[in-house]
């Protein structure tokens, strides 16, 4: 009722020629119920899916123009227009009330303390329907919309009007005919002596009156049957508050028999949680001749509790005196539960720790939650109406996104690791799960994306991988990665019939520099040596530090021994260039031993040992030279 009051105070009304809403923003996401059902359990849900499939008649209306933006299948069935036709209309095309009539209805709703309006809507066939309209303002896809639930009360209103119209007519007719009968009877007594002619006239009049009475009784009986079969619960009480009539719907709702209800007080059905003062205020209001409309929590015979919308008003006779009270009750428990579920879905959506992004069938973003803003840095206003590519980092090619879309089309879901960019330009990694939402006909309605920031986990994994596979000082591959790369190159060489050259490199003179200038200078020297070695070979080759001042290199696709020798010579010349180590200058040379796969062995350890032997021979030959392994050479 507070929401409706806010709408009234803000100037909410419908009219034939215009539609005005001035309400505070009320964030209320009703889209993703199935996905969010799925999402509430697994942080996945969808307002539009719930909206389309719900059995209640629902419209979403643009407050500035009255244009119908969304309509569900129940609205299409009620109004007789296809959904795509309904969304081309405005509410002014349907509402038959004039602006003056709308103003009167607005005042009545405020006075009666109800949060709905009663309008007259014209359907496709041209018939006019009396409807209840429950409306609240919401934010959806960056738009301020009016979310309206419509209830057809045409039959209820017709039956209520006919019932009290004919009852009043009956009472008036009976009173009138009774008075006439008395007058006629007196007249007959006075004129009895006049003769049989006047008696015949009087008999004719009496016959006519009897016939009229029978017709009235028949009409009353018909109205009684209509009330008995009414889809709403109806009960009446006498002036002392004791129930003297209930219809079948009332009996079915409360679970008591007719015998148990007649003569009882309505408090029999009142839940214990109802404040007694509220009950007395309701009774006092009706006793003063006023109508009371509100919601009550009712308890059935078996203890089941349910919500009812109740209309209480007095029945007066022709003299204006109250002779009975009537209650018309409608079970609104399901509507209450729907409202609760929508509130829960909205709360889950906003408080989820995972980022949530909802895009429409054209992949245009229509909603995001707070966690999305925390992860990406983009606010809701900055991304609504944009495509998810606003987050793209450029790290993935078109083929990656094409494969993602193909999987979504085939399976309605995709998940995986993706690299994106935050608003401030920072690259981050996320685990992304995308679900496609479809309607009953299988037509795509929306995409729901859940994203988790895994940047830190990715960094930790990269750090662990680096520590396990790279030398901490030089950044070169360590022995573990060296073995893995060798095995990969070995498979490639066997597959393509190629050779592999392996260099074993030892620095001549490093020990003296390290001992004389200190380990810090020695470490700096090793780092510069590693850089020169990497620059002397191709990126496809692998350079590793085996330990101390010993290095190894794997060269692939080098079947020409002269080319291998030229690379060895290039490395020696590179190492021989002076090194600038802070304020010191150092000069080194390199002794290199070379083995060739498969001539000198099939295993890495065997090739390394033979290369080490060839390197030792290079040192014996004066250092600063390279030597190929000889089959007759002893392995040290």
Offer a few descriptive terms.
636 residues; alpha+beta; five-stranded antiparallel beta sheet; 44% helix
Task: Describe the overall structure.
The chain is an alpha+beta fold. Helices cover 44% and strands 26% of the residues. The strands form six sheets. It has a five-stranded antiparallel beta sheet with strand order 5-4-8-7-6. Strands 10-9-13-12-11 form a five-stranded antiparallel beta sheet, with helices on both faces. It has a five-stranded antiparallel beta sheet with strand order 15-14-18-17-16, with helices on both faces. A hairpin with a 4-residue loop joins strand 14 (355-360) and strand 15. It is rod-shaped. The N and C termini lie far apart (94 Å).
**Structural class estimated from helices and strands:** alpha+beta
Shape: rod-shaped
**What is the makeup of the main sheet?**
5 strands, antiparallel
Question: What would you report as the Rg, rounded to the nearest angstrom?
Answer: 45 Å
How much of the sequence is in beta strands? 25-35%
Overall number of strands: 25
Give the structure's gist in a few sentences:
This protein is α+β, with helices and mostly antiparallel strands and 636 residues long. Helices cover 44% and strands 26% of the residues. Strand 16 and strand 17 form a beta hairpin.
């Amino acid at each position: 009722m507070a929401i409706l009051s806010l709408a009234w105070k803000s100037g909410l009304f419908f009219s034939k020629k215009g539609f005005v809403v001035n309400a505070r923003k009320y964030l209320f996401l009703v889209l993703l119920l199935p996905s969010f059902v799925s999402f509430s359990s697994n942080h996945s849900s969808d307002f539009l899916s719930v909206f389309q499939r719900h059995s209640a008649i629902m419209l979403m209306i643009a407050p500035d123009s009255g244009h119908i933006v969304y309509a569900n299948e129940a609205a299409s069935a009620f109004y007789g227009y296809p959904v795509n036709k309904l969304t081309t209309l405005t509410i002014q095309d349907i509402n038959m009330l004039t602006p003056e009539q709308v103003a009167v209805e607005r005042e009545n709703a405020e006075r009666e303390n109800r949060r709905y309006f009663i309008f007259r809507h014209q359907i496709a066939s041209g018939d006019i329907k009396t409807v209840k309209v429950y409306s609240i303002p919401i934010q959806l896809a960056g738009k301020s919309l009016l979310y309206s639930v419509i209830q057809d009360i045409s039959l209820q209103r017709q039956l209520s009007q006919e019932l009290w119209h004919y009852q009043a007519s009956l009472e008036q007719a009976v009173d009138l005919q009774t008075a006439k009968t008395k007058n006629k009877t007196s007249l007959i007594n006075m004129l009895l002596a006049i003769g049989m002619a006047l008696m015949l006239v009087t008999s004719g009049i009496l016959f006519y009156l009897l016939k009229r009475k029978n017709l009235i009784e028949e009409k009353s009986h018909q109205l009684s049957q209509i009330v008995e079969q009414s889809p709403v619960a109806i009960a009446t009480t006498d002036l002392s508050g004791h129930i003297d009539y209930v219809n079948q719907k009332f009996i079915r709702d409360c679970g008591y028999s007719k015998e148990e209800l007649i003569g009882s007080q309505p408090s029999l059905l009142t839940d214990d949680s109802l404040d007694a003062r509220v009950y007395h205020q309701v009774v006092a209001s009706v006793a003063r001749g006023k109508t009371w409309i509100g919601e009550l929590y009712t308890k059935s015979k078996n203890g089941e509790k349910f919500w009812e919308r109740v209309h209480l008003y007095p029945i007066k006779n022709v003299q204006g005196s109250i002779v009975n009270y009537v209650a018309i009750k409608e079970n609104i428990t399901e509507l209450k539960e729907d409202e609760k579920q929508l509130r829960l879905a909205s709360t889950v959506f906003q408080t989820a720790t995972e980022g949530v992004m909802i895009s429409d069938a054209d992949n245009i973003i229509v909603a995001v939650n707070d966690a999305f803003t925390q992860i990406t840095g983009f606010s809701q206003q900055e991304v609504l109406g944009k495509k998810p590519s606003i987050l793209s980092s450029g790290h993935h090619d078109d083929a990656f996104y094409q494969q993602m879309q193909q999987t979504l089309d085939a399976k309605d879901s995709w998940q995986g690791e993706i690299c994106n960019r935050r608003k401030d330009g920072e690259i981050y990694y996320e685990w992304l799960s995308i679900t496609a939402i479809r309607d009953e006909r299988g037509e795509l309605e929306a995409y729901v994306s859940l994203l988790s920031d895994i940047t830190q986990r990715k960094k930790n994994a990269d750090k662990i991988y680096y520590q396990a596979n790279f030398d901490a000082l030089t950044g070169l591959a360590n022995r573990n990665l060296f073995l893995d790369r060798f095995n990969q190159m070995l498979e490639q060489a066997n597959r393509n019939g190629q050779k592999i050259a392996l260099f074993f490199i030892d620095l001549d003179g490093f020990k003296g520099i390290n001992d004389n200038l200190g380990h810090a200078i020695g470490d700096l020297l090793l780092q510069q040596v590693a850089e020169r070695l990497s620059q002397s070979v191709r990126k496809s080759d692998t350079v590793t530090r085996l330990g101390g001042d010993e290095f190894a290199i794997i060269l692939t696709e080098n079947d020409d021994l002269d080319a291998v020798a030229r690379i060895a010579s290039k490395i020696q010349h590179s190492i021989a260039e002076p090194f600038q180590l802070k304020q010191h200058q150092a000069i080194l040379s390199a002794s290199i031993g070379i083995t060739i796969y498969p001539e000198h062995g099939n295993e890495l350890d065997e090739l390394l040992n033979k290369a080490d032997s060839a390197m030792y021979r290079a040192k014996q030959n004066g250092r600063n030279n390279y030597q190929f392994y000889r089959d007759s050479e002893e392995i040290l």
